[in-house]
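Design job #97: recover the sequence.
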């Protein structure tokens, strides 16, 4: 990308508004040296950075348009052909420079769309295989060296996606490897944004592996070391809260979640990394409900979990049914049979479209509670039986 006009416009805007490169990089969660290289013309900007600058500087799409126009002269005839899955995979294997960067980022975005919009399809294997292709090419230097940092940055994003997907599929060993690759590549390229997201994932996975102090240490290492965008801080306050409750410190955990809620509901979204889209009031309610469930305050947890599944408070993700399974579990704990039956019935409908290994296991645990509920009405036990049968169905049966 020859981005002279884009660079000039950004530099003029910063000068007119008396904003430093360091302050802008801090607001966008990028390394200031990386942004300096972009604005001095030594490195091409990623489209993620361009979009972040456009929103933060309130350019109304002008910076995005300049960046896209600058990229047009460098497109080959192949690039101009209609996009297809086979065409994109070919680029991932054979592209060398800016096209390699774009191919990696396109792969990451398609995987994220599949994970959230077609939740019955696991992205773990294709994500892992895609990163393996990129990892091999990075190792042997099979790319245009002028684009090395951009390629490393794009690869770190793909490794983060693969690490998350593998963890969601309950392949924890592979997820652990991919997380460390993502963190390593993010640090090499100066991609602070992906570094932060990967650290958040690592804290979350430590919590799920029963290592709450480790999760707390990761969260606080970020919270204590840098100034964060409100939505990013909210993510790490959530991780801090879960680490605290896991180590028996519920009052402190509650305070951390109060802070997270305030940051999400009152803070500005301008300049937030695009990967913070899932941090919503509904997500805060889900995490609060889980925290109370961990602490044994099940009746209080129900209120938050019920609120978390209200459509207006949340966005759809590949793991959205996790909170529903957690709610069913809590309702069974307190003997709220009618409500538990209704929630279990809703899971029967949603289960065929779920690929999240974690969520499936949670639903399976709910279904297997039938044998531990001798006082439950027969209609509820029948519903739990039906839920178990649904989990065991051939996913390709029409």
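Job complete. Output follows.
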């Amino acid at each position: 990308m020859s981005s002279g006009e884009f660079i000039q416009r950004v530099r003029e805007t910063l000068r007119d508004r008396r904003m430093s490169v360091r302050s802008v990089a801090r607001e966008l969660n990028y390394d200031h040296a990386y942004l300096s290289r972009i604005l001095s013309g030594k490195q091409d900007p990623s489209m993620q950075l361009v979009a972040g600058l456009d929103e933060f500087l309130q350019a109304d799409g002008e910076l995005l348009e300049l960046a896209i126009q600058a990229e047009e002269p460098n497109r080959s005839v192949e690039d101009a052909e209609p996009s297809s899955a086979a065409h994109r995979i070919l680029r991932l294997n054979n592209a060398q420079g800016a096209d390699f960067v774009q191919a990696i980022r396109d792969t990451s975005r398609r995987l994220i769309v599949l994970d959230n919009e077609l939740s019955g399809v696991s992205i773990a294997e294709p994500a892992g295989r895609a990163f393996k292709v990129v990892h091999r090419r990075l190792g042997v230097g099979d790319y245009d060296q002028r684009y090395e940092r951009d390629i490393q940055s794009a690869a770190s994003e793909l490794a983060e996606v693969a690490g998350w997907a593998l963890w969601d599929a309950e392949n924890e060993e592979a997820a652990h490897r991919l997380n460390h690759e993502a963190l390593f590549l993010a640090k090499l390229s100066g991609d602070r944004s992906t570094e932060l997201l990967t650290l958040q994932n690592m804290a979350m996975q430590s919590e799920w592996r029963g290592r709450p102090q480790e999760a707390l240490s990761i969260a606080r290492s970020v919270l204590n070391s840098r100034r964060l965008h409100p939505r990013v801080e909210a993510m790490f306050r959530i991780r801090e809260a879960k680490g605290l409750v896991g180590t028996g410190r519920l009052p402190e955990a509650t305070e951390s979640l109060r802070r997270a809620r305030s940051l999400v509901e009152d803070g500005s979204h301008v300049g937030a990394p695009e990967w913070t889209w899932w941090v919503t009031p509904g997500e805060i309610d889900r995490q609060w409900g889980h925290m109370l469930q961990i602490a044994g305050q099940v009746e209080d947890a129900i209120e938050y979990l019920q609120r978390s599944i209200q459509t207006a408070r949340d966005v759809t993700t590949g793991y959205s049914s996790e909170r529903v399974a957690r709610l069913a579990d809590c309702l069974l704990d307190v003997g709220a049979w009618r409500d538990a039956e209704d929630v279990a019935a809703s899971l029967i409908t949603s289960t065929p479209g779920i690929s999240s290994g974690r969520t499936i296991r949670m639903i399976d645990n709910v279904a297997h509670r039938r044998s531990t509920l001798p006082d439950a009405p027969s209609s509820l036990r029948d519903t739990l039986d039906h839920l178990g049968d649904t989990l065991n169905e051939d996913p390709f049966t029409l």
